[in-house]
Amino acid sequence: LIARGAVSFVVTIPSDFGQRVERGDNPQILIEADATDPAVASGAISTLGSVATGALSREIGHEGAPAPVDIVVHRRYNPEGLTQYNIVPGLMGVILQTIMVMMTSMALTRENERGTMENLLAMPVTPLEIMLGKIIPYMGVGAVQVLVVLAAAGTLFGVPFVGSFWLLSVGIFAFVLSMVILGYLISTLARTQMQAMQLTFFFFLPSLMLSGFMFPFRGMPGWAQVLGECFPLTHFLRLIRGIMLKGATYADVAQPIATLMLFVL
Questions:
Q1: Vertex 216, ends 174 and 96: CA angle to 5°?
Q2: Quick check: 4 and 242 in contact, CB under 8 A?
Q3: Distance set, CA 26 to CA 13, 31, 64, 137 (Å)
Q4: What dihedral do alpha carbons 72, 78, 84, 85 form, nearest 10°?
Q5: Residue 28 confidence (pLDDT)
Q6: What is the pLDDT of residue 6?
Q7: Residue 129 has what pLDDT?
C-alpha cells in the first residue's frame, strides 16, 4: 500500500502490547512512514507520536502523564529527509508537460497560420499519418529531456533509482504521448500562436497546483483532490516517485499507467 501511494503511514502494534503495558515494560509501537515527501512525513510523525501516547495514557487512567510507550519511527525511502528526493523526480513531469504541450501546440498552430498544413492535407496521406508525423519528433525531444533529467538527478542531486528502468520508460512513454497529443488537440482549437499559448497556460497552472507537486496531495480539500485526479501530471508523479524511490513493481503502478493511457485515448 505504501509503494502504491495508497497510504502514507502504517502503524504496527505488537501482539503482546497490552501485556507489556500492564507489566510496565515500556512497549513499542512501530510507525512506518512514506518519507518521499519530507515536509509531510516530519509533521505527521510527531503528531502520531503524541496521539499514541495521549491515547494510551487515557486508557490506563494516567491522563496527563506521559505513557510508558516508545514510538519507533522508520522513515521509508528517504530516511534522511532530503527534499531533492521529492522535488527532482517531480520536476521531470513538470518539464515534460511544459515543453511538450507548448512546443507541439505552437508549432502546429504556426503551420496553420502559414498555410503549410493545407498543402500537407492535400497530399495522399491519411490524417492519422499526418498526426503521427507531427508528434513522433516531439516524442524524440521528450526522450532526450528524460535522459538529461535522469542523468542530472543521479549525478548532481544524488537521487536514488531503485526500481526498473524499463517500467519507468513505459510510464514516461505514456505520459509524453499524452502531452504531445494534448498539444496537438490545442493546435486544432487555436487559430493563432498566442491563443495556443494561452490555452496551454489554462492547463499548466491548475495542473501544477493540484497535482501534488507544489502542495501535499492529501492535504488539499476533497474537491481539489477530485480535480487533481483529472490531470496526467498527478498520476505521473505517483508513478515516477514510486519507481525511482520505492522500487515499485508493475502491479503497484498499473493504475497510474492505465489512467495515462485513458487520457491518451
A1: 30
A2: yes
A3: 13, 16, 17, 63
A4: -140
A5: 86
A6: 84
A7: 86
For the chain, give the secondary structure using H, E and C.
Answer: CCCCCCCCEEEECCCCHHHHHHHCCCCEEEEEEECCCHHHHHHHHHHHHHHHHHHHHHHCCCCCCCCCCEEEEEEECCCCCCCHHHHHHHHHHHHHHHHHHHHHHHHHHHHHHHCHHHHHHCCCCCHHHHHHHHHHHHHHHHHHHHHHHHHHHHHCCCCCCCCCHHHHHHHHHHHHHHHHHHHHHHHHHCCCHHHHHHHHHHHHHHHHHHCCCCCCHHHCCHHHHHHHCCCHHHHHHHHHHHHHHHCCCHHHHHHHHHHHHHHHC
Question: What's the confidence (pLDDT) of residue 66?
Answer: 62
- Main-chain dihedrals φ then ψ at residue 74, nearest 5 degrees: -110, 115
- What is each CA distance from 249 to 124, 187, 241, 252, in whole angstroms? 44, 36, 12, 5
* HSE-CB of 232 using CA atoms within 13 angstroms: 28
Residues of the chain whose pLDDT is less than 50? none
pTM comes to 0.83
The predicted pLDDT at position 25 comes to 82
Q: Residue 204: its pLDDT value, please? A: 92
Quick one: pLDDT at residue 63? 63
Please give the distance of CA 160 from its chain centroid, rounded to a whole number.
16
Q: Tell me how crowded residue 97 is: count the other CB atoms within 10 A of its CB.
A: 27
